Amino acid sequence: MLRSCTAALRTLQALRGRREGVSPAARDPVLARRWFSTEKVIPKDHALPNPSWSKDLRLLFDQFMKKCEDGSWERLPSYKSKYTQKSEDFKTYFLDSKLVKEQLSQAQLFTRGYEDGLGFEYVIFYNDDEKRTVCLFQGGPYLQGVPGFLHGGAIATMIDAAVGMCAAIPGGIVMTANLNINFKRPIPLCSVVVINSQLDKIEGRKLFLSCNVRSVDEKILYSEATGLFIKLDPEKSLI
Ligand SMILES: CCCCC/C=C\C/C=C\C/C=C\C/C=C\CCCC(=O)SCCNC(=O)CCNC(=O)[C@H](O)C(C)(C)COP(=O)(O)OP(=O)(O)OC[C@H]1O[C@@H](n2cnc3c(N)ncnc32)[C@H](O)[C@@H]1OP(=O)(O)O
């Protein structure tokens, strides 16, 4: 958003320059580069390694990337805002367009709001045959609850995001209607955990899923959850 505001400002300044008899490119070399090249602004995919990723997270990431090679698994990209067809569809069908323009200009995905390494570092892989996702998650220092451990709300957020993606891929535009979590062991801050989600059943617009959160060596079961997601009805207003 900030980038597009800056771009708009540059264009405006350049056009003002044209009225004053100065070529826009001469006034603004950045704008000139953009106008005369085919370069496009590519949004950052946050579901890729960055320097804050621990060795554990990188190792697991590499293992799953290998599993993607035969097409059985797929890495799901993740953006701060709006770059998926699903989020555009959601706005089209369920949000008032005035609200989208005026109030959502600053909006970004809750889990991607922190600087690298401080909050939610994660990548989700999807297996279509098995209708399941595996989310590799490293919870950073800004997600502390009880000293030294992850906040339960941060764990719930990641479970919701991981289970939600497992529902949204086959289900389309869905929302969480119910999420039940048993917190069995506290998760150490900055450690890596594996969130396994599974689509169990679909009944009409209802998708039932289950989930567990385990340590990398699978020896510790941190949390278990079940979720109910509802496929939104385009005929029904959300507000
Ligand atoms: C999750 C991905 C979403 C994808 C879409 C958008 C963009 C994607 C792009 C990027 C996203 C990336 C990652 C996503 C990350 C995180 C996911 C976050 C998800 C959320 O953070 S989301 C916020 C919290 N969420 C809410 O804010 C919902 C508030 N809620 C409602 O807006 C309505 O409640 C709604 C719409 C859910 C249903 O409303 P509705 O009118 O369409 O349906 P209705 O009420 O008729 O229920 C139909 C049948 O479900 C049964 N049913 C309903 N609720 C039940 C319950 N709680 N327990 C047991 N059964 C229940 C009924 O009993 C009936 O059952 P039956 O058909 O058998 O009679």
Task: Characterize the structure shown.
With 239 residues, the chain is α+β, with helices and mostly antiparallel strands. It has one domain (55-231): Roll (Thiol Ester Dehydrase, Chain A), CATH 3.10.129.10. It is 34% helix and 26% strand. It contains 7 helices and 7 strands. It has helices at 2-19, 24-27, 29-36, 55-68, 85-94, 97-103, 152-171; strands spanning 74-76, 120-127, 132-139, 174-183, 192-203, 206-215, 221-231. It has a 7-stranded antiparallel beta sheet. The longest helix is centred in the C-terminal third of the chain and has 20 residues, at 152-171. 21% of the residues are buried. The structure holds ligand 3IX. The site of ligand 3IX has 24 residues, from α5, α7, β4 and β7.
List keywords for this structure.
seven-stranded antiparallel β-sheet; binds ligand 3IX; 26% strand; globular; alpha+beta; Thiol Ester Dehydrase, Chain A; 7 helices; 239 residues; disordered N terminus
